[in-house]
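Let's study today's protein:

:::
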Amino acid sequence: MASTERRAGIGTTYAVVLSLLVTGCASTQASSHRPGVGTWREIPASPLTARIGAVTAWTGKEALFLGGAIGAPCPPNADCAGPDETADGAAFDPAQGTWRRTATAPATVRAYSSRVVIGDEVFLWGPHRLMSYNASSDAWTVHPASRPDLVGADLATIDARVVGVRGERPPGAAPDQIYDPATRTWLLLPQDLLGASFDRSVTATPLGLVLTGKTLVPQPGSDGPAVVRAEVLNMATMVWRQLPDSDQLGGSGWAWTGTRMIDPSLGGEDGGEVNGYGRTVPHGGTLDPAAGKWGRLTDPPAQFTGGWPAFALGGSLSATQGWIYDDSGPTWSKLSRPAAAPPAAGDAVWAGRRLIVVGGTDTSKGYTSAALSKRAWMLTVPG
């Protein structure tokens, strides 16, 4: 079983970059939390064309950067064409400090695609179906088509199989699916208990699959916050067990730390003056699926107080909103910006306790391809 890391959806490709720029600008504000941890060092630049939205993965030996979108970033409030996605990729070996180009994918890789790793094979979405890249053989496989509405779904892996869960399930929709690479077949999951829902994601744990989402209600018309709900699928019995509802709104996604699930998103919402909640409901939090218990993040920093806004959810370690969260403490450490790095961090992945970041965006150079970088850095976090 392997844990999954959440990535932003393809439709938010340029919105993500712009939000990182905003966070980067706000990161000069004072913070009472811990100073930076570890030391950055620049590593050789990526051999690929500068890009954003590459699909990142760690095989245990190499950090993979597959596909992505090249071309000029979209200016704020502009109506830009969709991202120019690519099919090439590269792998970085942190032990050797070297890059290699990977085989070209048989189709373009969806920018910011969800992905899972089974052994040294990475499963991710192409434009129309699931593909996988085997790092040992440097070869791609195109898998049988799933239902069309599943393409682009959130992925998790359990029992050497790949689970796909749609981000939104409308009323009356068919169940989600699970794929067995050994038999090359897609099967239906049991119908979940969340019903019509959105912001759905799936996380693999030793207890089973944990499905999270929010109730799909008419907008406007909701009489309260859309909080995260959850249920667990026992893989032996294939029966769902519903958990109590949370008091959190959700944010960047979930990471399994080995003992619990963490959403390290900062900040919260109070509903505003018209439909106020009477309290601030946080975005992030914790979930112990075995006990069915939700919890608050420990001593979270305020929003917009962090450092360099790299984003990568790992296991115990996560980089989010300019902070490194370490669940083994738990501790928050401000993420310093490497020398000569762009204000907006590029694609990032955890390789054990090493954070590898490739590229970034500096729109002071204009909204052209010159704003994108292909330089790379690696931070080693002690512990």
Remarks:
- Helices lie at 13-26.
- DSSP finds one helix and 32 strands in the chain.
